[in-house]
Amino acid sequence: MAVRTPNTMVPQGEAHFGYVVFIAAAAAMGGFLFGYDSAVINGAVTGIQHHFAVGSNQTGFAVAAALLGSAVGAWIAGQLADRIGRVKVMLLASFLFTISGVGAGLPFSIWDLAAWRVVGGLGIGIASVIAPAYIAEVAPPAYRGRLGSLQQMAIVLGIFVSQLVNYALARAAGGKSENRLWGLDAWQWMLLMEVAPALLYGALAATVPESPRYLVATGQDERARAVLAKVEGRQDITTRIAEIRAVLATDHRPGFKDLLGPTGRVLAIVWVGIGLSIFQQFVGINVIFYYSSLLWQSVGINEASSLLISVSTSLVNIIGTVVAILVIDRIGRKPLALIGSAGMALSLGLAAWAFSYASGSGATAHIPKDEGTIAIVAAHVYVFFFAMSWGVVVWVMLGEMFPNRIRALALSIAAAAQWLANFTVTQSFPSMSRWSLSGSYIIYSCFAAASIPFVVFLVRETKGKALEQMG
Question: H/E element holding 180?
């Protein structure tokens, strides 16, 4: 789905900013569920292992299965939105999140759980595309940047709330996710709790207007007029509709041949986009958000304390994201990415050193107090540097760096690469940590360090450039 806007800035006049904020926030609930569904498994993973008596490989697959669905969901979301409308796609995502929460919370086997995780992953993939696209299409140009940032903020808030809910449920169950609570295991309630925000998302999506761009594209000009009058508050709606129709007339739905250069090879800019996506995941960030409870337990910290650490790292994630939103347009994308890479490489290396002092496994696992404190601090510093750089920069750059003629397709390919890289890291970590927890973090640190020359030599700055200048 190509999201394009005319070059002419629209005078805002009496734009109904409060209403625009409401509908943008309603769409961003998809981002909240994106973050919530992705991270809620963190608190449940120990209970799942005990309940089904499974090893690291099966656990890793159950956790990572959602990412396979996410790749598919992201791939089909744009086409669905162009066929049935943006609002109906949001309602579909809400339905997928809801049934996934119920199914994953009441599974019969580890494979049944994995299947429901795939369903939830479809919702994640759809939400990752439709929320920013819808916000871009309904937001007045003067507010587009600020309203667009609601999506990323909603994602990190979803991660934070999921960790807070996990911690509260584990505490209520005596500190362990496998303990019984209100007739079910605590980990089951962790997954079932997703139903509440999923239903709220559906209720909010049912109240927002359809995108004016979609309405004009499908010949529903009168409905488009009504929406534009409410969100932009201007009088010359006919001119505005004409501008949208003119942009739609120039839309080009790219094919794979458009990604090839004169020599018949894939354009370098496409490879750079894929590289950004892969590096973002290969620094191991989702190990923190999917497995941090298991991670800290593996070095002798009890489950309740592990979940509390997960809450605090999620809070740091929010703080880092706010920092990124505040400075990304001031200092640029490349400098921010380089600062983040350096900070991640150093903090991951420090965590690897601290984890090298861990001994034993299972109930006998232990890490000396000083090294354990260093590992916890290093993990928080790492999350901060990721959140204030690569967590935001990659998505911003993927939306800006590609030429107009291939932007939609290239972005879809880069996003799919990101989900597949995420799957690789998530699936492999349980086995890697059994091999060597310290070694795993050394590998992630090396990827963070390798991202520095990648950014310096291959990534072009996009700050302050019009989309039409990307070529």
Answer: strand 180-181
